[in-house]
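Allow me, if you will, to draw on your knowledge of protein folds for a short while. I have a record of one protein: its chain in single-letter code and its fold written as discrete structure tokens. I remain grateful for any guidance, and I place the record below:
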Amino acid sequence: MASPPRQVTFSEKLRYSFDKSMAAGPIALIGWLSFQLPSFALRLLC
């Protein structure tokens, strides 16, 4: 008898999403950085 599938955690979903976008190439990396850098800068300033 097969065991039921385990719950996928939020961090696993986030890692999968990140890995999938990185596989899309350098344009995806630029997109991630353009989204992440402003929020990181706001955290440093506040």
Remarks:
- Residues 26-45 form the longest helix (20 residues).
- The mean pLDDT is 83.
- Residues 37 and 43 are 10 Å apart (CA to CA).
